[in-house]
């Protein structure tokens, strides 16, 4: 009986570790809730370069501080914020990050601190860095809530829409080059 119990416990532990390893193997791809829970960012692998787009936001906004006047009226939902990140060591990627609050783009690096935590940092002059820790999430809050209620996602105006969280990665990858 004791041998069977140990075998079962061992099998459960091995399965749990394998599940964690599979998630870590995906790298930073997936949905991430920002530290203050005001947005969810979807990170996709675009042929070895990672991009993150706003998949959900608590308060809809526009990119009013963009340095390009032609882009100041675009919605922040779907906006690329993690730009062209490439592997830079184990569980670390470097590129740029766009801050729609001030319209500035910074050098950036992200690092998986665990399967469920991502440290995101932006740097000025390459050494003055600040950041926050994002949490992996299964679905953007409003998207999940809308699906439970209606079976599909809706915009803030109640119109049915396909969520960025549901878009194929290839479609997001083709769109980020145009933003």
Brief summary of the model shown:
The protein is an alpha+beta fold and 179 residues long. It has helices spanning 2-25, 141-150, 169-176, and strands spanning 30-33, 39-46, 49-57, 80-87, 92-99, 104-114, 117-124, 128-137.
The tally of helices reads: 3
Give the class from helix and strand content and strand pairing.
alpha+beta
Assembly context of the chains:
single chain
Largest sheet: 8 strands, antiparallel, barrel
Overall, the morphology is globular
β-strand number: 8
CATH architecture: Beta Barrel
Q: What share of the residues lie within helices?
A: 10-25%
Query: Could you tell me the mean pLDDT?
Result: 78
Question: Which CATH class applies here?
Answer: Mainly Beta
Description of the molecule:
With 179 residues, the chain is α+β, with helices and mostly antiparallel strands. It is 23% helix and 37% strand. An eight-stranded antiparallel barrel has the order 1-2-3-4-5-6-7-8.
What's the arrangement of secondary structure elements?
Blueprint: H1 2-25, E1 30-33, E2 39-46, E3 49-57, E4 80-87, E5 92-99, E6 104-114, E7 117-124, E8 128-137, H2 141-150, H3 169-176
Please tag this protein with its features.
alpha+beta, Lipocalin, eight-stranded antiparallel barrel, 3 helices, globular
